[in-house]
Amino acid sequence: MNRHKCFLTLLFLCLFLPTLAPGEEAEEEEILAGTVIFTQLAGKYTYLQIKQEDKEVWLAAAAFEVAVGDKIEYMGGTPMVNFYAKAMDRTFDEILFLSNIRKAVDVQQEKKNEGAKQADIPDDNYHRNISPGQAAIVPPAPGEVVKAATELTIAELFMRRGELADQTVSMRGKVLKLSKNILGRTWVTLADGSGVAPDDKLLATTKQEVQIGETLAVTGIVRIDINLGSGYAYKVMLEEATFTR
Fold first, then answer.
1. How many domains does the chain have?
2. Lower CB count within 10 Å: N or C terminus of the chain?
3. What is the pTM of this model?
């Protein structure tokens, strides 16, 4: 997301989102999902209607590629009532404007893609899922890792990665893997029971000592779209991470 888009998003939020009263806590946003039954690109926005359980919902977001039949996930948003969309020449009884929306991952297809990628990765300890001397750790089940109100889940970090880029955030996760002394840091693979593969694990780099299997609070700087070559590409990772027990 470029600076101009960031500014417009912030301006839109400042103008339309309600403010909290002193002492009032923001409610945790739920990740919702649905299947696209209509979509149209109009002006700078993609308008789409989705089937969500027993109801149909209209959504709008900055232009992105989506097709009828796609499953999408979203969170938050600003509802607009009796909204006239000039580019569509249509008035919506109610429509939700979103900044956090994406096509849901096809789990089976991702497994096939991951298998194809693994076939090209060298069979050595640096590239394997388990580091030397480490036993495989069972990832936490959904809801097993209890986070604080100010902490994000891994699913939220992937969902909101555009707006969170280069910001310092906090989360909580279980240490699944350690790769030590790589570029002077330890590379820590975390899971918290949220997200859909492959976006259910998060990499954090640190100079701290942590142990496999620990569940820890983590604070770090969000970096996105990192490609280190040799099969190492990350949509999201945390740098300069600090861990607390």
1. 2
2. C
3. 0.53
